[in-house]
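User: I'll paste a sequence; please echo it back and then give the predicted structure.

Assistant: Echoing your sequence first, then the prediction.
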Amino acid sequence: MGEDEERRDSGFNEGGEPETSTSDQQAEAPAAEAPQAEAPVVEAPQAEAPVVSDTYGSAVEEDNINNHTNEGSSQMNLGKIALILGLVASVVGAFTVIPMAAVILAVLGLAIGFTDDSDQVTVLVTALALAAVHGALGDIPAVGAPITSILGHVSSLINAAALAVIVKGIVARVS
């Protein structure tokens, strides 16, 4: 066995330091010595946000991630407030007499229909369904009459909202 073979077998290099395996040497190598391949940066194409008009007719860019218009947001707008007030009036009106309750529900329903553009089809279908079934639970003892009254009031509220949606649709078609 030669001198070179003894050095390799002893586990020490010429300087007297212990030899390491190739994987250890690669792991201990400074970052400057090892060539680093940079990953190419690929940017996603930016699509322009569609331009829509807000409730006042001004042109607004619609951002799908952060929608800054009132539509779809968690902020209270006039339509949501009118809906909540109409539902409260419907429940209270089932147990007490509210003077001019039909006028109050009609005005609130029109406010809902003209201001809330969330889903017009849902408003129309709900109006039809409530008009058809609001009296169906009247025969239930003790709770049938109040439930029928509540659903009747809600039906009046949503029917007024549906009327506003229909008028808005006609006006949009004409103009």
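Residues 62-70 have pLDDT under 50 and may be disordered. The first strand starts at residue 51 and ends at 53.
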